[in-house]
Amino acid sequence: MEKFEPMVKPGGVLIYDTNGITRHPVRTDIEVYSIDATAECAKMGQAKLFNTMILGGYLKVRPVVEMENVMVGLKKSLPERAWKMLPENEKAIHHGGEIIKKIR
Fold it and tell me: 20 φ, ψ to 5°?
């Protein structure tokens, strides 16, 4: 939190995973959201989906791309051997959008 909170531009968005946070954000000129992605990935038994779940939370609060384009991008960027995980990635994105919570 000490490193990244000051880097967010005024009016920007700060999303943080609640795991291991000892100091909560204090700025009032930004939107602040929390997401329990570490705990949710552990429940799913898929720690590798952490970033994808965070992306889902971000897309919920800032829908900068359509879901179908995210999935096309994932398929293009992942090696073919990882394509079997695309359905799990899509689930993680949707779940991230469901569990993100606005703090302020």
Answer: 80, 5
